[in-house]
Each structure stands twice: as C-alpha cells, then as structure tokens.
Amino acid sequence: MRSYARVLVGQLLLATVCCAAGLFFLLVGFSAWSDAPGWSGSALLLASGLVITVVIPVAATMATRQMFPRITRRDRVKGGRTPYQDDTFVMWAPTSRLGTGQARLARADVLEASLSRYSPDGESTFTTHYGDYTPDEFTPLIKLRLRVHDPEDTDPATGFEVTGESRVPSLCLSAITAGRLVVRVGPAAPEGGRTAIPDWPGSALLAGTRTCRVTGLDGRTTVVTGRVDRQLQQLRISQEAGGIAMNGDTIDLRCLDPHTASRFAALADRDRTHPEERAPVSEPAEGARRLADRLPGEQGAFGSVGRRWSRRGGVLVRARFLEMRARTTFQDHGPVLDTILRIQPPDGSPPFDAARRLTVPMNYLTALHRTKEVVLGVSPDGASYDVDWARTNLLAGVTEAKVIAPDGSELPLTGGPDTIWALMNLLVSHGLSNPGPVLDLRRRRMRAAAGILMDACA
Fold first, then answer.
1. Which of 229, 281, 267, 221 minimizes the C-alpha distance to 246?
2. How far is CA 7 from CA 127, 281, 290, 312, in A?
3. What pTM value is reported for the model?
4. For the residues 434-441, what does the mean pLDDT come to?
5. Is the dihedral of CA 65, 350, 394, 432 positive or negative?
6. CA dist list (Å): 263 to 118, 270, 278
7. Residue 22: what are its φ and ψ, rounded to 5°?
8. Interior angle at CA 133, CA 168 and CA 343, nearest 5
9. Which residues make Cβ contacts (< 8 Å) with residue 387, sequence separation at least 6?
10. Of 246, 290, 351, 354, which sees the most CB atoms within 10 A?
11. What are the DSSP calls for 354-386, one per residue?
12. pLDDT digits over 162-174, tens only?
C-alpha cells in the first residue's frame, strides 16, 4: 500500500504545477513592489499570488484525504457510537427498474453468472454523474441464467429458467455470489415467453447482505436475516402497501397502519409456530457465479510491513462496516461510498464508530454477503487507522490464500479467516512483508519464523 506521505508529496507537486501562476504572481508582484512601493498593481499581484499559493497545500491535503483511505479522530461519529448493533449492516442501494404493473415478486436461484462488460474510460481519477447512481459506464453488465420459482406456477419448486443480461449496481453484486435474487415476474406473453426483472435492493436483503429485524407490536425485536421465505413474504406485503421504510435495518410494526402491521404480525406468528431454517450463506455451486476474479480491485495479500512502522509498535485491527450508502461518484475500480465502520482499538478501549467516504473495490463488494470486515493498519500512536484493501480481500476470501510449508507441501486456507488473521499478525510482529496471497515458508527471510507460522496453521 502506498504511504500517506508519498501520496501527499505527489499531490503537493501536482497542485504546485496546477497553481504555478500563483507563484509567478508572487514573484512579479514582489519585484514590482520593490521597484515602485505603493503601486496598486503590485499589491494586486501579491494578493492574487498569495491566495493561489495558499490553495496549494489545502488542495493537496483534500485530494490526499480523498485518495488515501485513512481514518482519523475527525472521522469519529459524534458521541462515539451509532445506535446500530454489532451485527447490523445497513445498505442504501439504488432502486431497481420496475417491471409491469402486474409484476409479482418471486425468488430466483442464480445458476450461472458471468461478466459481459465493465469498461469505464479510466481518464479521470474520480468521475461524478450528478443524479445518476447507476451510470452504464460504472455499472457492470452481467449475464445471468436464473431459475425462477413463481408461486403461481403449477410447480413452483421446479420453476422456469430465464437467461439474459442485467446491469447490476455494484453494492448488490454479492447477491449474485450468494445465489439468491428477488425478481419481478410479469404475465406470460402470448407466445409463451416469461420475463423476470431482478429487484436488486430486495435481492441484497434475500441474500443476507443487508440485515433485517422486525419489532413487533409488543416491542420485541426478532432477527429475520436469512429467513428467505419470510423475507420474501415481507417484500410482497411491502410492495402491496406501496413501500415500507426501514429504520436502519428494522421494520417497526408499531409505526405501520393496522392492516399492514397485522399481516406482518401473522408472518411472525407463523414463524414462531413453524420456525424456518436459516438459508446458507451461499447457495451450492458458487464457482459458477464467481465474479471477483473478473472485476477490478486490489489482489488479496498477506501484506507489506514497513520496518519503521513495525518497530515503533504499529499493529493491525479488524473493523466492521455497519453502513454503506451509494453516491454518484465513482472510480474505475469501485464506487465512492459513504460508510460507517465500528473499530475496536488495539489498546482494549471501547470500540468507536467512524464515518468515512471510501472507494470500495468491486471485487470486495462481491463477498459482502459473507463478511463486512475490513483490516486496518494502526499508527504507533493510535491516532490514525489506514484501510488495507489487500489484507481485507485476502481475509474476505476474494483472493484464495495458501501456505507452502518448509517441506514443500501446500496448505490451502480457503474459508479460514481466523488462521489468515493470525498469520498476518505474526508477519507484522516479525517485520516480514509478503505482498501476495501465497506465503512460502521456504524462502530465506521466512525461515526464522517458519516454526511459529506453521503452528498458526495447525
């Protein structure tokens, strides 16, 4: 990862070149003032040059903050904490294109998915599309083969298959990896064709990416994340009611009209009588839906270790995203999102929440149904936290991790985030960099720590 100082120096040089006119005005104004004190023209040149020159460090600092994912004290949420629970994840995603007026909601299983096109122009660092949350340039086109389970079919368990391409908001990519979507099914056409238009915010809910709670009329709150059938029924009730606003990730029945609240309460009563099993994190055959390898973002790695940072006591911590909000600004490798993270300081003090605008890599967003964790590098004085996307993507399983033992045997670490986390921290404590997903303990610089690293893999 690039250091903050290196990025700042680069932005200072860029701002200096762009604002070179300010330095020119200062020199000319100073020279004119020396030759003719009191001349109004020289004063104007001096003032203009001073203003433009002052802009240089300000612009460089703002650009560096935008480009470098560092969290400081200024990012802390007022009061230190939001009302969100530790396992909450709130997502504010763009709404989907609606189907016909007669469309009904149904579940669809993703049988296959592949990237058809994602081709931003790459000409600018940040691109803003005012008023457009899903511009085609920054919204991947995905080819999908779905099996739709329409409850009005004679055999809804079997369903019917549809194949087509769809623009998928980057915040909702994890629904494809999870393999569960909500679609709007239109009436059958005279020639027998069927249409199924994905509802992406609903799909993120059904996939378990977004968490969901329901507060009943008695004030008790129930977690319904992963209860696929119940959530689908709730979405249908919401559709018929014209939409229901969630307070964060919670639907409060006490705030609904009596008829709608009674329908939600009936679902809760049925769930208590006949509890529904939680759906798996991901449906079988995830490999046929894997998009992370085709989308941009940092490759996962055990991470680089700065010697000075390590010697002075720099450490890693794990944080968790509590909220992501879509914006209309994008970079080629991911959208710029308004996020809230909960961070546990390394000194054991109470966790705090931070609100930070971040560019989140596309490949990480494909795994958001599985994890919301992010790895942060903590400065030795504990004043700043830098988001490390390479380590985050390795921990999230975006890139497969592997250890090669001293005897040459290979140890895959897929699905073992705790083992990967232990190895990352051991490498940091020993000042060892491994900027890749394969940790080869046969290398000379790894030999001294090979024993303790192998123990962590046991």
1. 221
2. 20, 38, 33, 21
3. 0.87
4. 96
5. positive
6. 42, 11, 22
7. -65, -45
8. 85
9. 69, 70, 71, 358, 374, 375, 376
10. 354
11. EEEEEEPPHHHHTTTTT--EEEEEEPTTSS-EE
12. 999 999 999 999 9
